[in-house]
Amino acid sequence: MRFSKTMIAASVSALALCGMVATGLSMAAPAEGPPKYRYDPNWPKPLPNNWALGGITGMFVDDKDTIWVLNRPGDLDESNNYASTNPPTAECCISAPAVLQFDAAGNLLKSWGKRNEVPGWPKSEHTIFTDRAGNVYIAGAQPSDTIMKFTADGKFISEFGHRGPNVPNEGQKQDNQQTGLLLRGVASATLDEDAKELYVADGYLNKRVLVFNSDTGAFKRGWGAYGKALSEISNDGQPQVGREGAEPAKDFKSPVHCVRISKDGLVYVCDRGGNRVQVFTKDGKFQKEFFVARNTGMRGTVGSVDFSPDAAQKYIFIADIMNMTVWQLDRQTGAVVQRIGKMGREGGNFAFLHLATMDSKGNLYTGEVATGRRIQKFSPQN
Hints:
Blueprint: H1 5-18, E1 36-39, E2 51-52, E3 56-61, E4 67-71, E5 94-95, E6 99-102, E7 108-112, E8 125-130, E9 136-140, E10 147-150, E11 156-159, E12 188-192, E13 197-202, E14 208-213, E15 219-223, E16 256-261, E17 267-271, E18 276-280, E19 286-291, E20 302-307, E21 315-320, E22 325-330, E23 336-340, E24 353-358, E25 364-368, E26 375-381
């Protein structure tokens, strides 16, 4: 999602007025709760070549604990340039490549990718993930964007297809019933390699999850909120946010911003606009939902979900774009056990937090969009 200066000012003003209060959440932590997280000021190391980051729209930790970062170089173009929110210098600023790989110490390992480098490159880069073979997938969230597959060094391998038409956003109409096209790109995607399945959060126009064969691209199944069949999802606008005490919305509210699979085979879907996480079996059977800062308006709360690295994945970590914080929830009950960071420019705080992800050691990595445009690391403290 892109933010105009007016939208950003309105968001910040609203937060100032509400005092960053997140209603609907219990902040009581157990006596022996999880470790506290400390901001690491030495991660990452300074980027080379006077590079500056655009909005951080994708982050993924691979099985070697390297951190893949996807940013939008186009955020630094003349119409939305870096100098509008950062003092210019003689050396500043050159857009960093779209794809950056870091190790846990903050060293930049690889960097590649720019618009028009490969035909069909996303107009709005939005998600990144890898497979066991080390291939890297990126996707975009605008009309005609789809998922593209590369080697770890950035050599193009293939594209997923299912591209929608290259048309303006204005005038596009929802079609939650068709399964051949991703009309407004991909909000998020994740692989189930054992099942050869690809899960897509089709959530920037439509309001659903789709599952495809990851080898052939063939459609397999899909569902909406509460496991609703695709044929039953409304194509009429967006539901109202279900405030505390009100009946929850029967459909997801755009953007349906993420999809992740836990070790025990449950599918977690971010209904960011609806301020909730819904949990399903892999065949789309609804299990439960957790509301997060339920009375939040505007851009919603649940931007991403990731899991703690213990075998039971006891906790989930949620990036909240509007309240600019990471919520740590008990995965079984949805109770909040910890809040990490708050609104602010200082290290360890956030400006428009877009996502958060975790490595196998329990380190937390975050990425910000709009005026934030940075990545940060938080390490657990015993």
